[in-house]
Every structure is written in structure tokens, then in C-alpha cells.
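Record type: monomer structure entry
Structure origin: computed from sequence
Chain ID: A
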Amino acid sequence: MPVSDHRAVLLKDYAPPTCLIESVDLHFDLGEEITIVTARLTVRANPAAVTSERTLQLFGRDLVLRGLSLDDRELGHGDYLISGETLTITDVPDAFSLRIETEIRPQDNTSLEGLYKSSGNFCTQCEPEGFRKITYFPDRPDVLA
């Protein structure tokens, strides 16, 4: 991320997320040219959320979104919004499963975050905010799965 794009996020700026991730199942199809990551998230409403609005906000960087489905229903472009590094799905149910399929290129990843190749080996570094270079995810320090 260019230095000019970096913005400090202070604890006072956090609000509890509207959704919690109960579990994450990841499948990696590692390839020399592209890697396909399929993430299956089990999501539920956060009872500590300060709003009743059910909007799921996920973060991703340097990803190609190949597929997105909510409770096995494929979502179309009108069902979600990608703006910069944020993927937003509005009006989600209180509990659901989400399947996200992304394409990444570990061999081109020189940031040493997420999944990258070094000396011919696949490596990961997911903290802080490195997981968003693997798949879309809340990827905030107060959201654990």
C-alpha cells in the first residue's frame, strides 16, 4: 500500500462488527501461474452490534473475485458492491454460509503478506491485515474465527 494511502485506525474508531465469523474453511488450488482460493465462512449476526442493519463488510487486496454465494445461491454483481479494497453485502440474514472464490498470483506478490512465493516455496504471512491478500474477510484485529 502506498504510504499516502495508509491511514491509522484508532480503537475509538471501531464499532463492533454487525456479523461474526464462526468458522472458516479454506481450500487452496496452488498453481504456478494462478492460485484459486475457496473460502467457506459460517456467519452469524453479532448481538453486540450497535446497529440492527445486517451489512457484511469484507476486505481484500490484489484479488480477483471468481465467485460468491450466500447459502448456496450464487450472488450477481447487483447483490454486492466492491469499492477499493472493500466488498459489501447488504441485507444478510441472521445466520448464513458464504462461499468466496478468489484468484491470486503468489509469484507476483512481493509484499511478503498473504500467500507469496519465496525461493520456489509457497509461504504465508497474515498479520496484520495480510489475510486480505488471500481472500475477502473482515480481517480486523477484533474479529476472530
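Annotation 1: The longest strand covers residues 19-29.
Annotation 2: DSSP finds no helices and ten strands in the chain.
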